[in-house]
Amino acid sequence: MSARPPVGRARAHATIDPVASKRGKQTVRDMFLSMLVITAVAGVVYIFIPHDDKADPIKAVDYRVELATARRAAPYPVAAPAGLPEGWKPTSVSYEGHNGAGWHLGYLDPEDRYVAVEQSTTPAKKYVPAVSQDAKNTGRTRDVSGQAWEVWKGPKYDALVLHAEGVTTVVTGSAPTERLVEMAAALETAPEASPDPSTASAAAS
Length: 205
Prior knowledge:
Number of helices: 5
Shape: elongated
Order of helices and strands: HHEEEEHEEEEHEH
Helix content: 25-40%
């Protein structure tokens, strides 16, 4: 037999404290007002503190020290561009004195497309596909400043490749071929050291 509550005794009912309810509503309201104030302050700071929405996040690098170091250390003439038109921006540079003595110089062209100069003593068959993102030799050549550069094409990068004694030079990137040609045409190596005047005079005498 189930137990029944004593006759005449009222069952307990949950009650809501009106004071606690009011405090809860005030807390939610205060939080909401605080968020509005913070948002308003942030908006004022954004408006009145100078900022440049069009600032270029990619900074140009000064590679003169790295270039001088590479030209002293590399077993081949290290190439770098001279006289590029306005709008070209150097963005990366490195020289590895081991594993093929690799020289890398990265640029963005005036349309912000990537162009890199890569040099190494690593065998070209292995080196060129590695730095050109698996580009393939088309069998064609392009004359640039009197030199025949191989034309390579790839799914990501195209490339111009120049073979010389002991070194392979690659100009590669996502830029169109004409930009690669522009970079290749601008490349210069370190000028030969001029003879010591005293040595030259002694030889002449």
